[in-house]
Amino acid sequence: MISRTIATLFLIWIAAAPALAQEPRCADPTPKDSAWWHWTSMPNSDGSATMTAPEPPAQDSSFLPASIVGPYLLRMVHTTGRDAGSGFSADVRITGGVGIAAIRGRWPRYLSFASASVDSARQTIEVQVDSVTHQVSLVIGNPGLRTTDAGVFLEVFTITETLLVGRWVDGGLLVFDGPGGSHPQGWFCLAKATS
Predict the structure, then answer these.
(1) CB < 8 Å & 24+ apart, contacts of 97-102
(2) Which residue segments constitute the domains of the chain, with CATH numbers given?
(3) pLDDT digits (tens, 9 = 90+) for 28-56
(4) Whole-prediction pTM value?
């Protein structure tokens, strides 16, 4: 009787193991590509070129910004240049299509925010959903995308009830990690807070 119970529990554990292994976690979704975001030049027949950048995966077409309302802890890790490996955290509260990202202290120097709020510990955060491609992104520090060359773009790769994971890139068009460097970028995790 005991051996049958143990065997049953073992089979249940084996059946559940693959599901547990597939649970998303706070980790870089592109660990083999530290400079995931980059411009690619595509030549046109008239001699000009079109610049393209990678796009995040599509989300479920039923996604609504209201599904991620609430408090989160944002963790951002830089993956390129002299700041590679450094990271920071901020408290985020999403209230629908908008919210606030508040850091304790100062935002890192390599981030480009709209000039009116560049020194503020509190930055706006906006949820953007593309109705055609079903891509989801969040923008920190550029309300309504009114300023060119500003903001931090968080491209969402994974959304669950408690987690958003993806890659971020600074929106400053001319900002690089030193001479010949790449654009400031990395991965992020928004984990649902309990309060």
Answers:
(1) 97/65, 97/126, 97/127, 98/124, 98/125, 98/126, 98/127, 99/124, 99/125, 99/126, 99/127, 100/124, 100/125, 101/74, 101/125, 101/140, 101/141
(2) 57-192 (2.40.128.120)
(3) 999 999 999 888 888 999 999 898 889 99
(4) 0.81
Interval 89-146: pLDDT, tens: 999 999 989 999 999 889 988 888 988 677 789 999 999 999 999 999 999 999 888 8
Position 183: which residue type?
A: H
d(CA 172, CA 142): 11
